[in-house]
Amino acid sequence: MADNICHHAQALGAKTACSAHYPAYSYNPDSPIRTLAAKLWKEYSGQEAELTAAHGGTELGVFSANLPGLDVVTLGPKAAGAHTPEEWVDLPSFGRVYNYLLLLLEALCKE
DSSP state, 89? Predict the structure, then answer.
């Protein structure tokens, strides 16, 4: 998309520069780690995992591009206003996600 925007801008006489390209990672409908993560979240919290698409995983694209076949998921606490002066994170949510991450890592080490 950035290349397309730069192309159109250049056609109108604008000077452009594109940088910081991050590779995307694709949704895996058969993701074993997502299945495990959702199961553990239900056991940990008593709630169904909220499985949504999110942009907050540019690093996962880099990892996936360099390690083909890598199964990845991203998770995080309740937060909003990313990269703005209004950015916030819910601290109790952060604590729950941190403790859950420890459980997930422990489960992954056992597999």
Answer: E
Nearest one of 22, 86, 99 to 58, comparing CA atoms: 22
pLDDT digits (tens, 9 = 90+) for 3-16: 888 889 999 999 98
Rounded distance between C-alpha atoms, residue 22 and residue 28, angstroms: 19
In contact, 100 and 40? CB cutoff 8 Å? yes
pLDDT, tens digit, 9 for 90 and up, residues 56-73: 557 888 888 899 889 988
Q: How far apart are CA 14 and CA 103, in angstroms?
A: 51
Handedness of CA 33, 64, 7, 19 (dihedral sign): positive
